[in-house]
Queue: 2 jobs
Job 1
Amino acid sequence: MRNMKKVYLIFVLLTLCLGLVACDCGQTQKSEPVNQENTAIVNDPEIPKEVVNTPVMKNLKITVDGQEFFANLYENETTLKFVEKLPLTIDMSELNGNEKLYYFEEPLPVAAEQIGEIRAGDLMMYGDDCLVLFYENFSSSYRYTRIGAIENADGLAEAVGNGTVRISFSLSGV
């Protein structure tokens, strides 16, 4: 009977240890800075999820027909992979009178969430290959992965206009 208690105690301790290790899986990876200019967007497991999806930097310049907009980037793996593509000039197509979109040839890592309220100036991924720049405020039940948000989107709708528009994304020194 005494040996049975020891076996049971060892089993419980092993189960707890394995459970703690399993809860930590994927949570300890740290990323390197995004570029040599030390823009310091990193994935930090110590940062709560609600903080991770908050703007952390003012270093994205979005140029539309000569007009510049500055965006804060979110701290996540999708943003890291997006920044690796910069500088980037693309033709973005019109969709629904409230957004411009572009399909990448290769997918990006994503962590989609139901956003609810879309704001003009939000830059997100729909699925793993569709970059979306919103230029109107509206509610949505679709799931997106956040990349960034323009600080002041005044004039963005006029700048992007109707139809396809050429947009440049680059890191700024802001």
Job 2
Amino acid sequence: MTKKILDVCCGSRMFWFDKNHKDAVYMDIREIEDTLCDGRKLVIKPDVIGDFRNIPYGDNLFRLVVFDPPHLVRAGKASWLRKKYGVLEESWPIDLKQGFSECMRVLAPDGVLIFKWNEDQIRLKQILDLIDFKPLFGNQRGKTHWLVFMK
């Protein structure tokens, strides 16, 4: 693997400054091109179609893994929120626990995992209580959190 970075839920790559970074592999479970209700174009076009619960790569490959999974459990069937961010299933606790394990599996020794979470519907504490990993540091204000883990 020549790429060093894996974004396992890239979506529309919203927070990426370089949406086609040469060292990154962009993965998502879906591919979408649509126009949102306000006229903005939504493009989710990953390099790899894959599920964060079963990442299609071997162990210890990436120096940086970005994990920004869907954070919503409720959103209208045809809503722009669902289209843009995706929605978790009822099995979200098991799914997110598996996602963290998979991210750590593909992360190289001493690699870094960046986790982004919005607390609009599920508290960050609920996520941290599910997983077997402790963050090194991150922000603790507002609804959107960025946490840093190291393998």
